[in-house]
Amino acid sequence: MIGKRIRHIKRYRDVAKVLARHGFGFFVEEMGLLHMLSLPKRLFTDTEEIDPLSIGERIRLVIEELGPTYIKIGQIASTRADIFPQEILCELEKLQENVPSFSFEEVETIIEEELGSPLSDIFLSFDKTVIAAASIGQVHCARLRSTGELVAVKVQRPRIKTMIETDLEILLDLATLAEHRMKRMERLQLRDVVEEFAKSLRNELDYSIEGRNAEKIAKQFKNDKSVHIPSIYWDYSTRKVLTLEFVEGLRLNQFESLKKNGYDHKILAEKLVQALFHQILIAGFFHADPHPGNIFLLKGGVISFIDFGMVGRLTLDMKHNFASLIIAMMRQNTEAMIKAVLRIGIVPEDVNLLLLSNDVDELREKYMDVPMSRISLGEAISDLFEVAFRHRIRIPSDFTMVAKCLLILEGIVEKLDPQLSIMDMAEPFGIQLLKERYRPSTIAGRLWHNVSDYGDLLVELPKQMKDLMGNLVRGRIRLEVSVPELDVFLRKLDRITNQISFSIVLLSFSIVMAGIIVASALGQEPIMFWQISVIEIGAAMAGLMLLWLFVSIFKSGKF
């Protein structure tokens, strides 16, 4: 870390000065940066008391002044209601990428270096005018020489990767210092948060990832002609250049133009909601930044999504948990909401379930007498994640992306059709997921998976026990159990022992019954016990054991 500080000393100083200028001099001082960077203390007089701006506003100004890396990190952070309070999130949502475009000469150089041919050999024409400019890259319109097709060419800014990596190194170092030197920062786990944000940002630096994201979402709608995803031209794409089909149409926020062209706003709103819910709740892979600038309306009322740099992923379990959360919220069931949140998030060991229940109850009362058609699903989920934040429950970033996505969606839908209820449209998707979860074939698949796992455990158990005992005898294993955890450890050990014992008894019973069935089949008369066939008794007992097994699995909730 010291080597990095020396290497990036000028940037460290810039960051420290910007923090101090906006009233965060105490932060610089507490982390020991004054001494590390040889900065005069007089520059870091804390201005927080005399600055009329709120903490959130000052954080936003710091981010905007520090440039592209921090702006992108701030935009990612604006989705994390489980980490930051609402006051800061509201300011982070205002971050805009007001960056100038870079020269056409630099665009030409990058394309030719990446694609290995002169620009004129690749494109029949290339418009020097910039269609859109952002902190990482900019977009131009061009026409392919090989096919004559109109394409959009996205080109990464020169040296942007080096600059972002430098800033990420500094951010990670500052987060580590803050955790070590500022006790109140420990619970935020800043280093983990920065690493998570850094991963998202590095993915956006690789345009080939964005291209693959677009193709994954395109597969979801291959049989749905009402949704269009631009094609990717891989022969003309690399990590720094992305060439894709040019989309011509109206943006969904051009409401007057939509009306003039005779489009029904209600139908458009329903199509948009259906398309996004399909991505989130059915496919589990979705566009995480569906603002109006990234959604076009093509001829015939076809909706087209663009810019897949930021996407979210939900596994099967995550989709089921999210569906459970939606249904619980619709039924205003506090207990079910808490269970869903606990399944979704990473829960600290010392969480106070009573206080959590009280906070969720208060939230439920907020929406109790409000008609479903007037409830914002995105806002309700964000409110619930705020409760999670207060109880230090970490929500996976993909879930917070869903909440952010729904808030953006509701903003668009409210302008298109104020009467449309996102909550009502979400219910059928949630019910479909829950039905799928409890479908016999799904349960059987999960049960077989569990049986396979336990089977492997039983097969490997003798060898593992032998190895364990051997290591214990040779003194290679040292076991330490703290007294506060002893009871928990013993209870878990007792439960595992009971499970193994039951498995052995069940296996023994199965072997005995198999022997009796074979003997009865070979004999002249069936074997009787109290005038009842032994086979019938065995079948009844097996049925009861199977029933008991199913009941145990359902009660555990792990199926």
Automatic annotation (TrEMBL):
Record keyword Membrane present: yes
PROSITE patterns: PROTEIN_KINASE_DOM
Annotated keywords: Membrane, Transmembrane, Transmembrane helix, Ubiquinone
Gene3D superfamilies xrefs: Transferase(Phosphotransferase) domain 1
InterPro entries: ABC1_dom, Kinase-like_dom_sf, Prot_kinase_dom, UbiB_kinase
Residue span(s) of domain Protein kinase: 125-490
Stretches that traverse the bilayer: 500-522, 528-551
MF (Gene Ontology): ATP binding; protein kinase activity
Domain of life per record: Bacteria
Family membership: Belongs to the protein kinase superfamily. ADCK protein kinase family.
Name the record gives this protein: Ubiquinone biosynthesis protein
Organism field: Desulfosporosinus hippei DSM 8344
Lineage per the UniProt record: Bacteria, Bacillati, Bacillota, Clostridia, Eubacteriales
